[in-house]
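For consistency, the fold was encoded as tokens, as this record shows:
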Amino acid sequence: MANLITFVREDWARRPLWMNLIYGFCLYMTFIYLPFDLFWKPVAEDDEIWFGFTLHGWWAKATEPLHWLIYGAGAYGFRHMKAWMWPWASVYAAQVVIAMVVWNLIDESGGGWISAVIAGALFTLPMVALYRAKPHFQAGLEGSNDAFG
């Protein structure tokens, strides 16, 4: 257990805190949320949001594997600080900004203009940070010789 704790500590020391939070979110989505959503959540309760538009039922189930692939690629890319993550992580984050604004404006569960502006501004922060993180991804960690590749 001590080796695992040391490994995680060393691994997470290679990235800025904000990037570790995004990495952790990708891990959560890849290994906990999306498997639950895809395999256990009833079709009638399933929703997926793409560019701010909510898909329900079977349409949501049909697009979940794409979300799973995106978050899995993000987890892998952040874990190894792959160069291909720049600019694609920021492009995906830009899509999230658009989705948050559109969803708040058009969905009956959205909060309207004020919520759209607040959500858009909040999600712009990681988008800009990811865009400016090019040096982190260029330095990369591909040469890492740890047990997890």
